[in-house]
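for the recovery benchmark. tokens below, seq after
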């Protein structure tokens, strides 16, 4: 078991008395941890006073020179290099490996290593961004005193720069990280010679030739990272690649900071603030998601918005075409509900039933995708991303109001057309069933449950509808993620160039397959995800003892039509319950749309960094337009089509 040297420190005198005068790495390590704890225990306004008192006590001590020497030896321990090379920089070169490590470090305690380790002490001290801010506000006399005392040695700066250069070269020269253009060889990459350049530069940092060589190599490395980022903007992104590029940028910045520190041009206080802030962010998960996930989220939103642009009608002609397609989607939904009831009547185990529901929903959803039919509940998350794209372009409130109006009237016509398609078709199917078999498709108890299940106040319909809205949003993410993946992998081009596929199915079918993947794979992935969330997840919740039912507006409308038809045939359809159930369908639709649109818009705005002032200005313009011309939010204006700011 490791020894503990922790002592209670209440004053600068006690802290000086506890300072080990003999070289003992473990004692030094624990003394430093206790000293930091004593200093951090004070509020920010008191902390400076404590440090001033300790500084005065150290300067006035009879053994001041020996104590200063001991402090400097403790601080200039060889593990100081680890602070320079790791504080604020990820430990792993890949996003998910770094995420797993940070999660483990948050949950599992870690013992201070034997032999003394400054990095471990500072990492376990719980440093925060407030601490970094406190360092930035220290008065100049304290900065001068402690800056001189704790200034790192040239050797530690040199070793840190060497290690960082080796790390940067290893990450950058990995396959797929920084692919070379044209016919350049790997040896021509600026990262290939980064280690040698840093070595020469740090040996003699004031040499003009070394400085010029470093600036040229540093600029080349940064340009290579920027070029790779630009390539990803066009082709699609990968989380690990984005994370690796962020890591390279951070490492290059740290090397340059160490170079400035070695030439006296770097400001010690600024570097100290950077190190403290690095320890604060090194433990956090949100900084990791910001660095590794923001670019991926933005590309997903871009692809989702690009898909969402197809769901927005800018003219009366487009409005009618989308409406006719939505009627077809409603017709297919009537058959989806028909098979759903058929599956529920079978004596299937929950897992098998879940797979059957999943297959049923996915089949008809994919059929809608291939037939270019519009499902109202699928639209909000898609159109929210398209709206965020328009907001990011900042073409003015009027352009943005035009897009919102087009989105609203398209949503209106698609919702209405879905209901026009699904409810009459459900009535027709039930009439055909009664003509063939002599009784309604739904048993009377199922029909009563169908009315009760969508009652807006006497059931959990609102909660279930909001959860279904979450499922719709998640399916839109699956669509955007798949579109990004297809673009990143250049999958259509890869299929066309695949000799194995051409030899198997022929050149003509290969080209058709590539076009099919380009046009439909992302939509199919989104609909399969939606089918899983609507069909299989209720069975999972049932297994866990949670009563959750899907409330999808078009499916619910089809189910209600079957229920009405059954009750009417049996003479049990009453006006008041029927009206409440119809109102429940309207509430379900509103909850589906609101949840999916709000989540889609939230992610899109976060990824696009649209300002609060911009949003307020848009809301004012939108309110004015609603008062002046409310009809344009339901029906397209006559005359010239509206030009919408779709994604490119």
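predicted aa per position
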């Amino acid at each position: 078991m490791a020894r503990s040297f922790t002592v209670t420190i209440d004053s600068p005198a006690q802290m000086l008395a506890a300072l080990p005068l003999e070289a003992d790495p473990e004692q030094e390590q624990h003394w430093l941890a206790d000293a930091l704890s004593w200093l951090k225990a004070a509020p920010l306004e008191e902390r400076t006073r404590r440090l001033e008192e300790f500084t005065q006590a150290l300067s006035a001590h009879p053994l001041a020179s020996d104590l200063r020497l001991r402090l400097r030896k403790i601080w200039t321990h060889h593990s100081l290099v680890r602070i320079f090379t790791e504080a604020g920089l990820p430990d792993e070169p890949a996003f998910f490996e770094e995420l797993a490590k940070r999660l483990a470090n948050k949950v599992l305690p870690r013992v201070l290593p034997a032999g003394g380790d400054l990095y471990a002490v500072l990492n376990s001290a719980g440093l925060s961004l407030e601490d970094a801010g406190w360092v930035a506000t220290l008065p100049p006399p304290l900065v001068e005193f402690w800056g001189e005392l704790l200034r790192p040695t040239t050797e530690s700066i040199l070793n840190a720069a060497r290690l960082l250069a080796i790390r940067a070269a290893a990450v950058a020269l990995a396959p797929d990280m920084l692919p070379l253009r044209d016919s350049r060889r790997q040896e021509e990459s600026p990262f290939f010679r980064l280690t040698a350049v840093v070595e020469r530069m740090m040996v003699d940092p004031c040499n003009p030739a070394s400085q010029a060589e470093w600036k040229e190599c540093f600029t080349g490395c940064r340009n290579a990272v920027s070029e790779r980022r630009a390539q990803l903007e066009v082709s699609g992104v990968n989380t690990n690649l984005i994370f690796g590029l962020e890591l390279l940028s951070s490492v290059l910045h740290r090397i340059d900071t160490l170079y400035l520190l070695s030439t006296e041009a770097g400001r010690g206080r600024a570097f100290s603030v950077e190190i403290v802030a690095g320890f604060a962010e090194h433990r956090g998960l949100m900084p990791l998601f910001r660095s590794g996930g923001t670019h991926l989220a933005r590309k997903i939103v871009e692809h989702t918005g690009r898909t969402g642009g197809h769901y927005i009608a800018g003219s009366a002609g487009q409005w009618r075409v989308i409406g006719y397609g939505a009627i077809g989607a409603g017709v297919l939904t009537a058959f989806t509900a028909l098979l759903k009831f058929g599956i529920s009547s079978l004596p299937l185990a929950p897992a098998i039933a879940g797979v059957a529901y999943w297959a049923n929903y996915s089949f008809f959803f994919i059929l809608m995708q291939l037939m270019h039919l519009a499902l109202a509940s699928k639209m909000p998350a898609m159109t929210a991303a398209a709206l965020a794209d328009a907001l990011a372009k900042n073409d003015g409130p009027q352009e943005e109001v035009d897009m919102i109006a087009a989105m609203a009237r398209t949503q209106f016509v698609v919702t209405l057309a879905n209901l026009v398609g699904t409810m009459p078709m459900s009535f027709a199917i039930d009439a055909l069933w009664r003509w063939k078999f002599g009784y309604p498709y739904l048993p009377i108890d199922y029909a009563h449950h169908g009315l009760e299940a969508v009652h807006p106040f006497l059931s959990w319909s609102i909660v279930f509808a909001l959860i279904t809205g979450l499922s719709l949003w998640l399916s839109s993410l699956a669509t955007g993620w798949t579109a990004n993946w297809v673009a990143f992998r250049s999958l259509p081009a890869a299929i066309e160039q695949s000799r194995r596929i051409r030899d198997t199915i022929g050149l003509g079918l290969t080209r058709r397959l590539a076009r099919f993947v380009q046009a439909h794979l992302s939509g199919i992935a989104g609909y399969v995800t939606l089918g899983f969330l609507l069909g299989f997840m209720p069975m999972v919740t049932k297994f866990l003892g949670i009563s959750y039912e899907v409330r999808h507006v078009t499916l619910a409308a089809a189910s209600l039509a079957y229920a009405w038809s059954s009750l009417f045939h049996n003479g049990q359809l009453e006006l008041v319950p029927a009206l409440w159930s119809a109102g429940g369908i309207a509430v379900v639709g509103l909850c589906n749309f609101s949840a999916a649109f709000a989540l889609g818009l939230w992610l899109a705005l976060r990824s696009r960094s649209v300002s609060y002032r911009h949003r307020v200005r848009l809301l004012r313009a939108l309110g004015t337009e609603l008062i002046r011309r409310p009809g344009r939010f339901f029906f397209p204006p006559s005359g010239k089509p509206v030009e919408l700011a779709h994604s490119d």
